[in-house]
């Protein structure tokens, strides 16, 4: 396919995506506790490297809010950003292996409630972590009260930025197509820069250098090379590094695959992204990003939807947006360093809110406790422990509901009159009979009267645990005085002799 065929559509779309990506790249790096330059590197890699390899026509990759909580914790736990970069490279290699192993179906094996809980928990963490930046909180400032340590200027421009973002999205974009082309985050950033320049030097309303973006300003090639961070591969034997790498690979793959599904649904041409190729592209992208000091990348729904809404037709728009990011790093670093961190915090507040909308809690509650409880426990687990533990808790709660349902639906007891004095009891087993079903089976057997005619129907049973057969055998041998007449109904026919029990159920034995 000639990707330049739609250049007239892809170029304008790439400009919009570029303006959306700049504040998000910086903001997500801020939320991750990483150098802000690492967010821009990830944006460039996501656009150019992943864009070239990926088979997604409209998806745009870059640093993801969904990984911010992992990165923030990992940098601290591993003892530095350079060691964390080793985990990014290894995580990318794992994603590459996922793709080669055709593991693109991995997202289908995670409960929907847990995935939604994961994204919601991440959204809450993003909001919580941005509160100090939003208010320009500085613990080193003199004063005993909390208000003494809050910057009036940072708070003011953060509130103005929040108002711009809300107004832009909820009112202006619906009023005119022009406002859909010029994105709210870009406007907030421009207003923030104007505010900084205007109030520079003011004691009450001005911003200190610690309240601004800080990316390297390079005057020559040596300085540019010195701006990049490189992984410390001496830490490759650290088990914790491998655990973080697996976490990055798993979450980045899940987030990418979920975004791929959402993006494909928005595509007017109904093209389908090859999922395994996407994992390969993301894996290679993360390896490149980690090698030169970038954050982990995933396909991102914010940038992808902006691309679609702006008329993007092919992956050329994603590639060009990455080139624009590269140019901005080289040509306008001074401009980027005038962006207040509180503006980025306001943008991330909105990002976090979209991930953790109160309406989502309401809708999950409306689906019943089987969906709501795994969702809530995942959120709580992520916020109060870490991402992997939170996901694990959510999956365990989901499994618990499965086990309870399996316990309740293990069998049906059908009672039929044979004569006026005797009845036939037909015990119809479900498709799967495991040790979980032992108690209800024992209960039914113990309730049988003397000389009962018992039929155990296994014709619909695909799997029966050895424990269940032992229960039946034990009942027959220990309750011989009841003189139970047993008949087994199987796909291979009927068995009337209790001695044939194991042969009937396990013919191979």
Description:
The protein is of the alpha/beta class. Helix content is 62%, strand content 7%. It is elongated. The strands form three sheets. It has a five-stranded mixed beta sheet. It has a two-stranded antiparallel sheet with strand order 1-2. The chain has a two-stranded parallel sheet with strand order 5-7. A hairpin with a 2-residue loop joins strand 8 and strand 9. It has helices at residues 7-32, 36-53, 68-78, 81-100, 112-135, 152-175, 177-181, 184-199, 221-227, 239-266, 275-291, 301-309, 316-331, 333-336, 341-355, 358-366, 369-384, 387-408, 438-446, 466-478, 501-505, and strands spanning 61-63, 297-299, 411-417, 423-429, 432-433, 453-457, 463-464, 485-490, 493-495.
Q: What's this entry about, in short?
A:
With 509 residues, the protein is an alpha/beta fold. Helices cover 62% and strands 7% of the residues. The protein has helices at 7-32, 36-53, 68-78, 81-100, 112-135, 152-175, 177-181, 184-199, 221-227, 239-266, 275-291, 301-309, 316-331, 333-336, 341-355, 358-366, 369-384, 387-408, 438-446, 466-478, 501-505, and strands at residues 61-63, 297-299, 411-417, 423-429, 432-433, 453-457, 463-464, 485-490, 493-495.
Helix content: 55-70%
Low-confidence stretches: none
Main beta-sheet strand count, sense and barrel state: 5 strands, mixed
Spatial strand arrangement across the major sheet: 3-4-6-8-9
Total helices: the number is 21
Note the overall shape.
elongated
Mean pLDDT: 85
- What gyration radius follows from the Cα positions, in whole Å? 30 Å
């Amino acid at each position: 396919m000639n990707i330049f065929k739609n250049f007239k559509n892809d170029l304008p779309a790439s400009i919009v995506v570029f303006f959306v990506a700049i504040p998000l790249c910086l903001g997500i790096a801020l939320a991750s506790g990483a150098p802000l330059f690492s967010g821009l590197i990830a944006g460039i890699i996501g656009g150019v490297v992943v864009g070239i390899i990926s088979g997604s026509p409209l998806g745009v990759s870059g640093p993801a809010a969904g990984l911010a909580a992992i990165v923030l914790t990992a940098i601290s736990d591993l003892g530095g950003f350079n060691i964390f970069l080793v985990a990014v490279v290894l995580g990318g290699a794992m994603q590459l292996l996922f793709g080669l192993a055709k593991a693109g179906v991995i997202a289908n094996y995670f409960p929907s409630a847990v995935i939604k809980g994961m994204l919601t928990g991440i959204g809450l963490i993003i909001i919580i972590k941005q509160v100090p930046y939003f208010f320009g909180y500085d613990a080193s400032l003199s004063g005993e009260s909390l208000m003494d340590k809050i910057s009036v200027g940072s708070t003011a421009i953060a509130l103005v930025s929040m108002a711009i973002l809300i107004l832009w999205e909820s009112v202006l974009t619906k009023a005119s197509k022009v406002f859909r082309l010029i994105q709210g985050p870009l406007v907030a950033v421009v207003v923030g820069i104007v505010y900084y320049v205007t109030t520079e030097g003011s004691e009450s309303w001005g911003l200190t250098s610690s309240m601004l973006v800080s990316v390297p300003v390079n005057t020559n090639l040596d300085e540019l090379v010195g701006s990049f961070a490189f992984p410390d591969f001496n830490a490759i034997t650290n088990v914790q590094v491998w655990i973080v790498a697996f976490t990055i690979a798993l979450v980045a793959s899940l987030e990418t695959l979920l975004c791929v599904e959402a993006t494909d649904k928005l595509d007017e041409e109904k093209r389908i992204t090859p999922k395994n190729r996407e994992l390969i592209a993301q894996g290679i992208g993360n390896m490149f990003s980690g090698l030169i000091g970038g954050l982990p990348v995933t396909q991102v729904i914010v940038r992808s939807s902006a691309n679609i809404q702006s008329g993007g037709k092919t992956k050329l728009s994603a590639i060009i947006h990455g080139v624009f990011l590269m140019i901005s790093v080289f040509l306008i670093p001074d401009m980027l360093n005038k962006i207040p961190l509180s503006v980025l915090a306001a943008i991330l507040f909105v990002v976090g809110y979209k991930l953790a909308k109160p309406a989502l809690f309401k809708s999950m509650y409306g689906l019943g406790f089987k969906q709501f409880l795994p969702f809530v426990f995942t959120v709580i687990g992520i916020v109060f422990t870490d991402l992997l533990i939170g996901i694990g808790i959510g999956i365990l709660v989901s499994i618990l509901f499965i086990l309870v349902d399996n316990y309740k639906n293990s069998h049906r007891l059908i009672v039929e009159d044979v004569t006026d004095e005797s009845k036939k009891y037909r015990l119809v087993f479900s498709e799967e009979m495991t040790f979980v079903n032992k108690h209800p089976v024992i209960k039914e057997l113990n309730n049988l009267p003397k000389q009962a005619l018992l039929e155990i129907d296994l014709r619909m049973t695909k799997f029966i645990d050895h424990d269940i057969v032992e229960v039946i055998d034990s009942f027959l041998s220990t309750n011989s005085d009841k003189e139970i007449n047993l008949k087994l109904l199987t796909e291979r026919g009927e068995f009337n002799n209790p001695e044939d029990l194991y042969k009937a159920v396990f013919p191979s034995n």
